[in-house]
Please model this.
Amino acid sequence: MKKAKLFLTAALTSLAMAVFPMAAPVAAEETEVTEISIKDAFAEHGIKAGTCLSPYMISNADLSGIITEQFNSVTMENAMKPDYIFDKNASITAGYPVVEFNSDALAMMNWAKEKGFSLRGHTLVWYSQTPDWIFHEEFNSAKPLVTADVMLDRMDHYISQIFSTLEEKGYADLFYAYDIVNEGVNDDGTLRDCLWRQTIGDDYIWYAFYFADKYAPETIDLYYNDYNEQFKYNGLVKMVETLVDEEGNYLIDGIGLQGHLYTKDDLNTYFRAMETLSATGLKLQVTELDVSLGTWQNVLAADEETLAAQKDFYHDLVRGIMERIDSGKINMDALTFWGFADHLSWRGDRSPLLFDKSLNAKPAFYGVIEGAAK
Ligand code: GLA
Model:
């Protein structure tokens, strides 16, 4: 396997100084990134280090090598989304949606099992990447939407089969968290419109957690996952606080903060969002972290200066999160990056990750390691 070589001597020197304050600078040629890992650095704070996973990543030795060296948790980037987990013909025959994990999902679950990874499930109830036909009479998109009662019955079958299938196939134990609902809240805190809502009603999120709580093994934490968390955290708090049973106990275990950020974002606002969300008493996870260069409106090109700013941002973000974990201000057991190599990222044009397209560690990698250093 080709080892990822160090990107900058300066970065390593500062890393060596951070980890071993008295250490002499180490020559870049002699040292490989493989000697330090995100998962070891995060383990010091009791949390898992995750990446998203695609079929290509497990088929490529260089990529899977980095994953096994750096991470201990994976989330499938696409293969477990609703678009990929139903068998339409079987659903028409059965009269309810039939779950059938495809060969990519099975291959990645087998890979994760063999290599000893933990898994985050992603995702069940979402407005996007979901087949329209599950909402229509006779599973035919040309027919009217079904009634609330029918859609609730379909949701019940759907969620129960997810967990029974994972158990039957021997994968359930790999999962420690599952995104039950993804992106249900608008930036202004109102409920997003979607076919789940149009069929079931405003309480569709409640029902999703009700069924997940009923069918998921106790060992899998049930998450609500969303983006722009630093803007809509008050709306998120209001929504998750409704996810309780008759006795007032939560049906949900945690809030997933996607963490699709920019180097010019305000970290104080981000930490305020985290602490406010944590005050609900729920766990938090960062689930899809990537830090693009510049701002949403004005993406900057990668150069020495912008990559150094990205390193600082990752450092300060990770440091701030670890301090809050260590002091008990937030209850977090995992931080997942939405990939690791820029060219494979959904935001590949914005250089948001820790390794470049040649799989060299970027300054951002060292920002993360130094931020997590005790
Ligand atoms: C959202 C979803 C992810 C993924 C990204 C884009 O954040 O939760 O599954 O689709 O968008 O890659």
Observations:
- The first strand starts at residue 48 and ends at 53.
- Residues 122, 182, 227, 258, 288, 346 surround alpha-D-galactopyranose (CB under 6 Å).
- Residues 1-31 have pLDDT under 50 and may be disordered.
